Structures are given as structure tokens and as C-alpha cells.
Amino acid sequence: MADRTRLPKPGPEFAYTFPEIRRTRLANGITVWTSEHREVPLVSALALVRAGAAFDPADRPGLAAITGDLLDEGCGSLDALALHERLGRLGAQLDTEVGADATLIGLTTLSRTADEAVALLAEMIRAPRLDDRDFGRVRDLRVNRLLQLREMPPAVAERLFVQLLYGSHPYGHLPIGTETSLRAMHVDETRAFHRAMYDPSRVMVIAVGDLSHEALLATVARAFEDWPTANDPRAYPDPAALPAPSFGPSAPRLHIAPRTGAPQSELRIGHVAAARSSPDYHALITLNLVLGGQFVSRINTNLRERKGFTYGARTTFDFRRGPGPFVMHASVQSEATVEAVREAVGELTAIRHDRPVTAEELALGRAALTRGYPRNFETAEQIGRAIAQLALYDLPDDYFTEFVPKVMSLTPDDLTRAARTHIHPDRLSTVIVGDREKFGGALAEIGLGDPVEVSAPA
Amino acid sequence: MDIAFTHHRLDNGLDVIVHEDRNCPIVAVNVWYHVGSKNEKPGRTGFAHLFEHLMFEGSEHYDEGYFRPLQEAGGVLNGSTNADRTNYWEVMPANAVELAMWMESDRMGYLLPALTEAKFENQRNVVLNERRQNYENRPYGLAGMAIVGALYPPDHPYHWLTIGAAEDLKAARLEDVRTFFQTYYRPRNASLALAGDIDAERALELAHDYFGELDSGAEVPPVAAQFASLPVEIRLILEDRIELPRLYLAWQSPALFAEDDAHLDLVAEVLAGGKTSRLYRSLVYDQRIATEVAASQNSRELGSYFQIVATAAPDRSLAELESAIRVELDRMIHEGPTEPEIERCRAQAEAHFLHRLQTVGGFGGKSDQLNAYNVFLGNPGFFERDLARYRKSMTTDLQRAAATWLGPGRVALSVVPRGRTSLALIESQPASVS
């Protein structure tokens, strides 16, 4: 019979060696990272282009994203259909992600077809057609997507929230942009953006999979090394380096986008916080686990497991090259809106003074982050995406090896200090998408500012 | 595709499947119970899923939330319910697999002593909020209910969605939980798979130690369903808070792993898999009357349904979409796919397969798939034969499958912006969902 009087303790800690990462610089300036992963006959190649939504011109939110979207609409001698026919027959999976700081174009393919697939990836990045007809079609699709998002509470809340936090700062809009901007956009703008941003000086390539380092490097080099660099990177300063409004607006602000009859209120509460380069990074991710970053966090335990107000509540520090947002997000039953907001703000406040992180909570947070860490390096694509983080945030090559000892060295005081430095309940910006008549109490009493009614963004 | 495994059945009927994979120092623990919303009764829907929530809230010998100790050991965990089955999984560091075995066995054997009215009430509220978030407050969120409601008669086990009806959830009683647990959460109705950095012998020993003592339980009541294909088209309309109208076409189709199931997967791929697919090319790329189009064979144990979904571009009616889709369907039925098309789709199917099986755990990883094959086919090692279903498909198979199954008897649901009923297919009847 099993001993059910106590939970079994984990066995002894085991040694884990991270996949070896090699870094090479091609003559044109492109840095190439390679890592071997011999388990499955696949290769994952990722191109990271320092051209995220923060590089959008002020009057053209959405330009980086639509340019990224057009890469697979035809390149070189291939039109969109011919390109996808080729990718399909290679069994390749293409995935383009446009973030605030960068655009990541990923391709996973069978290792025996890696050469051809990586050549296609390079062609898409180097020589997309950016044809007027394709542009018009893709632009319309994105405008239609924005139309649909008007009725999607999380999307409405997200958009209002970054606007409220950042105003005209380059982080003040979502990558997809706005209907106004997209309708006014011309294909030439995507061509100019591509010319300026898609240059070897701004591109890094990562290849991971079932080939040797040498073969991975040769595959990437063949596809990218004869691409001449054309521009002066100094001409495009990092928008992340622009001073962000410190913590966002100086006084609390509360915006409500009405949604009559809504059964739930969509909530965003937070402020501008730290950049990825913050020396408090490890303390903040651990603090976040305790506060709202996992199922057993304080906020989820309170709002979901004790009160039943929501399917789930989370907090996030969205780390970027510049100061990114800290946000609590949840969708709560309409009638519990006021109480849910009060509880959430209460948790943000308490963790700084009244109920600082306990030794037990810290132990759980540290263990959750470190004990399962190797899990993040199971597949070629996971390893590739982890390396992309090194590339994007200028992290050292031994970053992964150092991660566990850094987290393990944190003390409760470190977390409390991080909470006091980086969480500011008196500076919160709040967005609620919901039906005010059903909120179940007086919002004004919570001290988040006077409610201002705003319309869902166009 | 060589996934080596061992397969044992404990005396109490629990299947134990072990696959060794030393790539990463982690072990996936995956438990399937062969019960889902198809085992519910009309008026008591949503229960299998509500029950799944309670499985995370503590058991007799560890009467607290299950997340904490597993996460503290470095694990991740989750669970899900669908019409046919309920699964629970952990991915643990290799040195903490015993903890997951302890906890999975404790809730399989000893859930009820830890069950309280307070937990039940709390999770009912959480599930009602899950329903509000993912169905009621989401554009097109009620479409799925309208479709299965019309596709299957009221006493058919697929007539309702797994999330269930709000009034049924509110009517559920603690006593129902007990009966449900005693009927379905038994070793003989479960399958346990471990995959990862562990010896098969050690894994089996742990399974014996922790699960061997549990009472096997009585035989589970069978679920039967008559295949009652629709003789004619049913047209429904649903007004919603949306900007662009959307058309759903749904047909009853052969069950998971039955003849033509894989063929219809490929038909879906030819019709709407990516930018080179026929419907994408016609509706989105050339005519620009739709903003998106998707097709899928939704494979299930007692019978599947094939679905095409297209969202109209502004100022386009769903009738335009329907006729454009009809052209492509007719072409598929009369001419089948071309040889290059089917080659591309086979390559894609193979790539998806490899992709999914890169991980040992989680939804769709190797441990989950071993259990799926075991529960639905009684053969955990079906990988190669599963893939062969796609590899040997011919253009004529797809043509025949489309002709056989995608006929006039179907559900056509128009979801339109409130007050814009003229955008729907004509003669559509209001769908009743909430």
C-alpha cells in the first residue's frame, strides 16, 4: 500500500546541461546562433528583425505589422500562391509575430529540406514583392479584423489600456494599428519601411535542429551572406530608448468603455513598469508569480478560488527593451466588478507593506521557476525562441546557466524592495469594458480616479 | 514514426503505458478517463466539465488545491474535458514524478471524502464565469451551441456542448458529483500514460504502488447513439453583437478513425488549409468576398461533424458566400483534388504529426496521444497506422468522401449583426440559444 500520510519529496537534484549555443557573425553583419537538437528530424529557423510596432511612424500605427504580414505574400519570382505551394510541399510551418520591439519570422521544417526552406525564408525577408494588389487585399483584411475586434472585449480593453498608459510614446498602440491609419496607408510606405528596417544590420538568425552546428551555419550563410547591408543603423534610433512616461499618467485614471448588457466586465489595471534590462528582472518575475503570475498566486486565489468572480485573474510584467506595462487582467462577472477591482487593488497594495512576500511564498516561487526550467528546452523551436530572447535583449551567452542561481539567491527582502520600487497603487490606470449599471457598487470609492466614459476605439 | 512503449493492465483494470524518451529530464504523467459530456443526460449538461474542476480542489489525503505542491516540485499541470473524454496531465522534473503519481492516484481513489458544498459552489461560479467569458460575452460565441443543437436530436449525446447550459449548471447538486465519480472515475475506465526520462520498470512499479490498491469499479454504462443524418438542410439565424456576418455549414460525418475520417481531414485541408487552399483562394484571395475561411473534420467517437466557416467582407451577404462555397464543393465532389494538391496535403499532415509529437507531455504530446489511441482503439501504438491513413489517401478517396458526406442534409447557420437579418441565408429560422 502506498504511504498516503505525506506527499513524496522530490529525489536528489540532478545536473542539467543547457544546449550549447554558438554565435557567428557573417561578413555583412548578421549574427547567426546555432544549436544542435538531434531528437526529431526537424529544423527550426528564426529570423529576428529589429522592426517592431514601436518603429511605426507616429501617424502610421500598423505599418510594421502589415509589412511583416506581406512577407509571405510573394517574394522574388514567386507570387503568394506559388510561395505557399512550395512551403506546403516542404512540410514547413511559417509563423510571423510582430511585437513592440521586433518582428520574429519562424519556420520549422524537416531537416532534409532545411536548405530549401531557409532559402525561402531568406527570400521572404530580403525580397518580398510588396505588390500593390496584395497590399490592398491584406490591408482590407486587417481593417476587417479591426472591425471584428470592436466587439471583442479583451481587444478593446487592451487597446484602450496601452493608449491610456503610454499616450504618444511608441508603445502607445497595438501592432495591428488603427482603421484610420490602415485606410490612409499606401504600399510605398511598406516598401520604404522594408528598405529601412529589413537590413542585415538589424537582422539576426537562429537555427536549431537535427543538423550539426556547421551544417546549420552553412545553411543560414548560404541564404543570407550575400545580402549587402545598405543603411546606417544609427539613422533609426531604438524607440525603446525614448523616455517612457514614468509609470504612465501621474494621477490614477479610470476609463470605462460601455458594453450594454455584458455578462462580464473586462478589466485592465496597471502602469508603466520596468524594462527587460532592469537589474530587478529576476526579482520581478518571482514577485509576479507570488502576486498574480500563476494559478496559486494571491490574486487568482482571491478572485477565482475564494470568490468565484472569474475564470482566472493574472498579472504580467510585459518586459521589453524599453519600460513595458505591468498589468492585472481578468474578465469578471459584471455584478462583482467593483468588488473584484477593490480586491485586486488591495492585493497590489498589500504586497508592498501590509502583507509582504513570505519566506514560504518565495520558496514556492523560486521552486516553480527553477525546478522545471529544463522543460523550456525540450523542442528545437523552444530552444530557438529562447535564443531569440538573448538576441533581442542583448543578454549574455551564459544567461540560461545563470538563471537558476540568480533566482535561487533572491530573498524576501529583494522581492519586497522590488514591489515597492516597481508597483505603484497610487499611479494605476484602469480600463473596464462592461455595463456600468451592473457593476455592483460605487467605483468612485475605490480611489482609482473619476470614471470617464470612453468609446471603443476606431 | 517509432514510439516504443510498454503496455500493462493492472488487476483493477487500469491501463499503464510507458514510453521512454531521454531527450529532456522531464516526465509526463497523463491520465484519461473515458467520460465526457456525451455521458451526460439532457437537463444535466455541463456536468463532466464542472466535475473536472473539482478534481483540482483536493482529495482525502491532500485536501488542498492540487496546483501548489506540483508547481513547487517544478511541475506544470492542466486538464480538459470534451464530449468523449476527460484528461489530466502533469509534466514533472524527472526527480518528482512520484509526487504526480501520488496525487493522480489519490484523486482517482479518494476524491469524495474531501468534497464539500463550499468547493462545489465556488467551482460552479468559476465555470459559470468561464461560460460567460468564452461563450456569452464573445463574438460568435453561441454559434457552436446552435450547430450541435440542430445537427443532433435532443436525446443524442452530442446535442449539447461540453460547457453545458447555464440553468443545468445552476441545477447541479453535490449528490450528482458523488454518483458521477462512483460511476466513471474508476481504474477500469481510465488509462495512465507516462512518457519521458524514466525507466519503464520503475514507472510500472510506481503505478502498482499508487494505483494498484484502488477498487476497479463497476462496468460503465454504455452510451449509444444512432446515426441519424439530416434528410434536408436546416437553416438557422442567430443575431449577435458582431460587425461582420459569418456562415457556418455543418454536416454529420464518420466517427474518429472510421472509414473516410482521414479522407475528410484531407478534404478540409484541400478546401481551406492555408493560402493555397481552394476556398481561401476563391473567397478571400480572388473574389475578396470573405475575410477568413476555415474547414475542419471534427472527429469524435460516436460520429463526427464536418464544418466550413466563412466570415463575410463588409457589405457582402452570406448568400454570396454560400454560392461561392457551393462552386468549390461541387468541384470537389465531381472532380476531386488534383495530384499536386493531395501531395501537399499529405506533406502537411506528416509535418503536423511530427510537430505534435515533439513533446512528451501536455495536450497533444506523446503521452496524450498514447492514451488517445488506447482509449479509442485499445491500441496505444497506432502512430504508424494513423499516419498511413493519410499517406495512402488517393484523390479518388477524397472525391468519394466529399460526395458521400457533404450532401444537401446539413445545418446552415447565419450569424448576423443585430437587426441585419437580411444578410442571412433566406428562410432561416431563429436559433434558440443562451
What would you note in describing this structure?
The complex is a heterodimer of chains A (458) and B (434). Chain A has 458 residues and is α+β, with helices and mostly antiparallel strands. Helix content of chain A is 38%, strand content 18%. The N and C termini of chain A lie far apart (64 Å). Chain B has helices at 47-54, 67-72, 97-109, 117-136, 143-151, 166-171, 174-184, 200-211, 261-272, 278-286, 318-335, 339-356, 366-377, 383-391, 395-405; strands at 6-9, 15-20, 26-33, 76-81, 86-93, 190-196, 234-240, 246-253, 290-298, 304-312, 411-417, 429-430. In chain B, strands 1-2-6-3-5-4 form a 6-stranded mixed β-sheet, sandwiched between helices. In chain B, strand 9 (290-298) and strand 10 form a beta hairpin. Classes of the chains: A alpha+beta (458), B alpha+beta (434). Chains A and B meet through helix 2, strand 7, helix 4, helix 10 and strand 12 of A and helix 2, strand 5, helix 3, helix 4 and helix 10 of B.
Concise overview:
The complex is a heterodimer of chains A (458) and B (434). Chain A has 458 residues and is an alpha+beta fold. Helices cover 38% and strands 18% of the residues of chain A.
Average of per-residue pLDDT values of chain A: 94
The major beta sheet of chain A can be summarized as: 6 strands, mixed
Distance between the termini of chain B: 45 Å
Structural class, from secondary structure content of chain A? alpha+beta
Provide the low-confidence segments of chain B as ranges: none
Give, in spatial order, the strands making up the sheet with the most strands of chain B.
1-2-6-3-5-4
Order of helical and strand elements of chain B:
EEEHHEEHHHHHEHEEHHEEHHHHHEE
Structural class of chain B: alpha+beta
Question: Number of helix segments of chain A?
Answer: 15
Assembly state of the chains shown: heterodimer
Strand order, main sheet of chain A: write it out: 1-2-8-3-7-6
